[in-house]
Design a protein that fits this description.
The structure is a homodimer of 267-residue chains. In chain A, the strands form 3 sheets. In chain A, strands 1, 2, 5, 6, 9, 10, 11, 12, 13, 14 and 15 form an 11-stranded mixed beta sheet that branches. A two-stranded antiparallel sheet of chain A has the order 3-4. Chain A has a single domain, classed as 3-Layer(aba) Sandwich (Carbamate kinase), CATH 3.40.1160. Chain A is built from 7 helices and 15 strands. By secondary structure, the first copy, chain A, is of the alpha/beta class. The longest helix of chain A has 25 residues. At the A-B interface, helix 3, strand 5 and helix 4 of A face helix 3, strand 5 and helix 4 of B.
């Protein structure tokens, strides 16, 4: 059982992964896909005159503020455009893919964080009406039902919250929770970088191995989006997933390469 | 087994239907929902600077021309926004809804019509690159798998075509094909009119019954969107569906009302 997540950052090309997934599915492998869509969401949100809003919290870390209108744009791009286009491409390659958002069957269920703290001019403000949440439970029975019938689930945020509304959930952490729930042999997280780098400007500075019991050893090199990726990876390994590989989507056969160790292996 | 389709025309409010579906699901009824999204698609397409394109064919009938950009907007609104919002609302009412587009598992599969004839200034032109298709096969095994496990499928166009691409399919005809494939006891098609009217400006001119063996008897009253609705209804009854009711979505308990005969019953 392999779970593979492909990010939605700028410059990530899903074609090579989809072809590789089709080959491995044809060879009989049990697979689940998870995807992002952040770059396209930002593009559509700008085009609709509702650009993404980012806030800086007291810790200094940036986060997205998701009001209802932003959530609906997020759903349009993730669950509508990106998900359907990936499923269409897999179907065209004879893979019986089924797209699901985390709302479907409460596939990704957790707590809503309805407010976010924002520091502006040194003052902390509370912004209410945020549609962000965590993934605390995965409906693995729904995934097993589909997998046992031969389908390949293609999963997208948002998730469903205890507050009765859909919420933006982090795709990397969602992939980690899915891999854990399915007791996957491996979770592969693909993006536009070759893995965790000591120097983000130097691909040859790749860190080939992270000990899931001692992630603090690489803490100095963890920046920006890599926080969620590494956090999701460590939790997944601690939760029983065989290994997690952070690797590049933009190489031939990206899933094969990652599973052969081309990337940062968290174990 | 009941299949209910709610249109996406202007002024159609899904709230009453969703509450009614939740009640009937809680009472143990086997249900499938199908929905449209045309008005919201037109709104988003305008906002994105890619307004809907309509052409007039040699028969004088108007049809939509769906280029790739339009298809992707269509997917964003139907499979992204409208579908996810309906599933979210059902989940909030404790219904284990699962949203699917016709691309998922080739749920709605058929032939692509890649070109459309357009009459302009008396000359017929062929427009290529259309993404429109028919529904010739329904993956009823996927629906039965979900229904048997207690889920309520919520289905949206597009469909998948023999050409390997997603296509815009008519929602009413898709609902008819789904009801036929599931051998449904009834198909209810809800919109912003109370049924087939002799005079579209007079709701009291409702035609209460259409004989599925003699639909030509009401042909003088069939206009615009009612063509597809009645065609879908007649084919469904001919295909074995117990009865089809065309009725209003904008009444309290719209599904109960339609099943009690409030609307145009095709049988």
């Amino acid at each position: 059982m392999i779970v593979v997540k492909i990010g939605g950052g700028e410059g990530i090309e899903p074609g090579p992964l989809l072809a590789n997934v089709a080959q491995r599915h044809a060879a009989g492998e049990r697979l689940v896909m998870v995807h992002g869509g952040s770059h396209e969401t930002n593009r559509v949100a700008e085009a609709l005159g509702h650009p993404p809003q980012f806030v800086t919290g007291p810790s200094g870390r940036q986060s997205r503020y998701t009001d209802r209108a932003t959530l609906e744009i997020f759903e349009m791009v993730y669950a509508g455009k990106v998900n359907t286009t990936m499923v269409e491409s897999l179907q065209a390659q004879d893979v019986p893919a089924v797209g699901l958002s985390g709302v479907d069957g409460r596939l990704l269920y957790g707590r809503r964080k309805a407010s976010v703290r924002s520091v502006e001019n040194g003052k902390t403000k509370i912004l209410r009406g945020d549609h962000t949440g965590t993934v605390d439970q995965v409906n693995h029975a729904l995934l097993t039902l589909l997998l046992d019938a031969g389908y390949l689930p293609v999963i997208s945020p948002p998730g469903m919250s205890d507050d009765g509304v859909a919420v933006n959930v982090d795709g990397d952490r969602a992939a980690g929770a899915i891999a854990t729930a399915l007791e996957a042999d491996a979770l592969v997280i693909l993006s536009n970088v070759p893995g965790l780098l000591k120097d983000v400007s130097d691909p040859s500075s790749l860190i080939r191995h992270v000990d899931a019991d001692r992630p603090e050893a690489v803490a100095p090199y963890v920046q920006g989006r890599m926080h969620a990726k590494l956090d999701g990876a460590v939790r997944a390994v601690q939760g029983g997933v065989g290994r997690v590989v952070l690797a590049s989507a933009n190489v031939p056969q990206p899933l094969d390469a990652a599973l052969q160790g081309e990337g940062t292996v968290v174990q």
